[in-house]
Amino acid sequence: MTGPTLAARAVAARLGGRQVLAGVDLTLSPGSLTAIIGPNGAGKTTLVRVMAGLVRPEVGTVLLGERPLPALSTRERARAIAYLPQGGTVAWPLPAADVVALGRVPHGGGPGTGRIDPAVARAMRATDSEAFAGRAVTTLSGGERARVLLARALAVEAPVLICDEPVAALDPRHQLAVMGVLAAEARKGRAVAVVMHDLALAARHADRVVILAEGHLVAAGTPHAVLTPALLAEVFGVASLREERPDGLLVLPWRPLAPASPV
User: Fold this and answer.
1) Residue among 87, 86, 102, 83 at smallest CA distance from 28
2) DSSP letter at 261?
3) Where is the ABC transporter domain (predicted)?
4) pLDDT tens for residues 42-82?
């Protein structure tokens, strides 16, 4: 499949009286996994919520292909953009399989339809969550629940997939597995964006890395171009290790840098 691009054009957003985004341009392209990184409070979550149509920008616009996002109906947008928020909170003790089936609601499916949707089965298999399909999602560990919620987003089978910190609660094996799943979704032709803090995973799996700081986009490009010691020191205030390996780029934050002395 090859879907449309999702593009933010000069978007600005203000939350609680504070400027959170200021003139950000970002295009998510089919066939590419984009990692969005930056310090806490940089505006990453607000940016992806704007691009998912959940927050209306103060200025600027978001385009799905050539269409402004507000021109799409709620159902059209739900079919086109799958969004996984951070946090992983589930209030009701639904079976995990029913939670995943909620991803089929935009297509007229969902839990209680009396049939097993193949998209639900594919999503649970991809996220290694089949073993607890019948368990109440409220009884799962944080990592198990995170995999179920990712499966719900995958089950939409939307051309655009946006995930906000999908690996934060996972053990190392499942972090690697989930990033592998997201990279595979991009290779199928989807436009995939992942908000994350793990520089090593971003370097390893992303086709493109975007860095936000204080509501501004400060760098965008390949991991090799963006994840440099100089830029990471400037944005995050850390010294980092970087090694070119035969199977990819390795980047690790190593130690905090001392704050600059006042003049």
Assistant:
1) 83
2) P
3) 6-239
4) 999 999 999 999 999 999 999 999 999 999 999 999 999 99
